[in-house]
Amino acid sequence: MRTKLFPALAALLLGATLLATAPPAKVLAPEAAARTQSLLAAFGRVPPPDAAPHAQRTSDAELDGFFDLDSLCARAIAPHRQALSGAQMKRFLRDFRALVRAVAYGRAAGLIKRAKVAVAVPVAVDARQRVVLHIEVSADDLQSELAFVWGPAAAGPARIVDVEFDGASFLTDYQNQFGRLLKKDGPEGLLKKLAARLAQAPGTP
Fold first, then answer.
1. Which of 25, 194, 1, 3 is closest to 103 using CA atoms?
2. Partner of 76 for a Cys bridge, out of 49, 63, 174, 203, CB 3.0 to 4.6 A?
3. pLDDT at site 26
4. Phi-psi region for residue 25, left (φ > 0), alpha (ψ -120 to 50) or beta?
5. What distance in Å separates the CA atoms of residue 150 and residue 161, rounded to the nearest whole number?
C-alpha cells in the first residue's frame, strides 16, 4: 500500500504544481480591454526626453509590465537564428531590447498624448486578443490605426506579443529588415548597426 501511495501522492502534487504554474489558455476580451486602458494611462505618464533619469527609469519599468519584451525580441530574429552565434545572439537580444525601450516607448507616448484615441472592442485571434486604437491627430492631418495584440503570460496579466501600425506587424517588419541586413552585412554588420542606432537613441548614455 505504501509503495503505491507515495507515487500516487507525488503525481498528484506534481500535477497540482503544473496546473498552478501553467500559463492561461487564452486572453479574454475584458482583460485585454482593461489592460489597454491601463497602458494608455501609463503612456500618458511618460516624461519628456529631457526628464531626470530616475523619472525615465520609473516610466520604462512601468511600461515593461505591459510588453512581453523577451518574446518580442527573440521572435524578431527567430527566422534568422542560425546566422548568429550564441555570443552574437546575446548581444543582439540585449541591444535590441534596449533600443525598443529607448525608441518605441517614447514615440508611442508622444503620438498618443497628441492624438484623439478611440479604442475598439477586442477581437479574439486564437488565444490572443487584438485591440485596435483609431488614432487621429488633427494638427498633422493624421489618421491611423495602432493595434496591440495581447497574449497570455506565463505568470501575471496578459502582455503585448505584437504591435501593428496600419496593419503592418512589428514582428514581421523587423524580421524582414534583419533578414536584409544579415544578407548584406552579415551578423557583425547587423550588430554594429544596432549598436550605432542605440547610441543615437534618446535617453541612452
1. 194
2. 174
3. 86
4. alpha
5. 6
Per residue in 124-151, pLDDT tens? 999 999 999 999 999 889 999 999 999 9
Q: What size, in residues, is the chain?
A: 205
Beta-bridged to residue 132, according to DSSP, are 147
Q: Which three cell numbers stand for residue 53?
A: 533619469
Task: Note the helical H segments in the chain.
Answer: 2-21, 29-44, 53-64, 69-77, 86-99, 105-114, 170-200
Element (H, E) at 28: none
- Distance CA(8)–CA(101), nearest Å, equals 48
| pTM exceeds 0.90 for this model | no
- The CA distance from 100 to 85, in Å, is 22
The DSSP result for 121-165, as a single string, is PPEEETTEEEEEEEEEEGGGTEEEEEEEEEE--SSSS-EEEEEEE
Grid cell for residue 86 = 550564441
pLDDT in tens, 27-82: 899 999 999 999 999 999 999 888 898 999 999 999 999 999 999 999 999 999 99
